[in-house]
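note to self — DONT lose this again. spent like an hour looking for the file last time. sequence + predicted structure for the chain T wanted, 302 res
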Amino acid sequence: MRMGVRRGLSARLGRLFAVQLTVIGAATVAGIFATQAVVEDLLTRQALALEAEHYWQRRAENDGHPLPDTANMRGYLGGPSLPADLEGATSGFRRLAFEGQSRLVHVSEHAGERLYLVFNAGQVSDLAFYFGILPLSVVLLLMYVLLFVAYRWSRAALSPLVRLARELETVDFDRPGGVALHLDAVRTVADAEVATMVDALDRFTNRLDAAIERERLFTRDAGHELRTPLAVFKGSLDLLARNPDRPSHDQRALARMRRTADDMESLLETLLTLAHEEAMATDVPVEVGDIVAEEAGRLRGD
């Protein structure tokens, strides 16, 4: 039972933060791959298309305009000097093995000529890592740290409530002397809301103890007050039963009255027993057969 409460709020809070971490992590990883795809593919392809368009414009103005030749990109025109790795490449974008490495190739045509732009995407991948993946990874790490701190703060905020639940589990509500709550340790670490709950529990248990005490006193006093008239009644019955000249039906009526008086006396003794705190926790065996036989005899008029 205690384990169920102990795992309640803490376990649910832990699962909540675990789900948040999973969702945030998945979203961040998806963002990393999306950033890499945007940087490496979309932006690179757009740059190559613009470079090809710029080259054809310059070549239309000057037939001897040189081919692009930079640290990351080299251009080739179709013809005998075209490298064998580029032969068979059609118009558009594709990745090809060029000089033993994977390269992004853009092929465009203009006025019957074909331009091959070979781009080294390795450096773009490095840029995507340093300016895309690495910052997002740092952000993900910071979010994990912040979530962990928030989780610790949440546990600290809930700890008085969990501690209160554990203290209530140890309370013996069947204790003969009344309910005893020891919540001072909880009150010292509780915030305003939990302190209000602790004060309300204290007031409730005090009222409950007072009600139990009033009931005990009433039961005891009522039992003592009824003993005297019952004793007088039983004494009178004994005097009446001593007359041997009474008719048999009167004797039977007196016997029934005597049994009723004995039952009332047993009831009073029970009330007085219940009035004592020590007897409230005592299990008294009851002979059901004797009770049934006695009641059956009473109904028969024995």
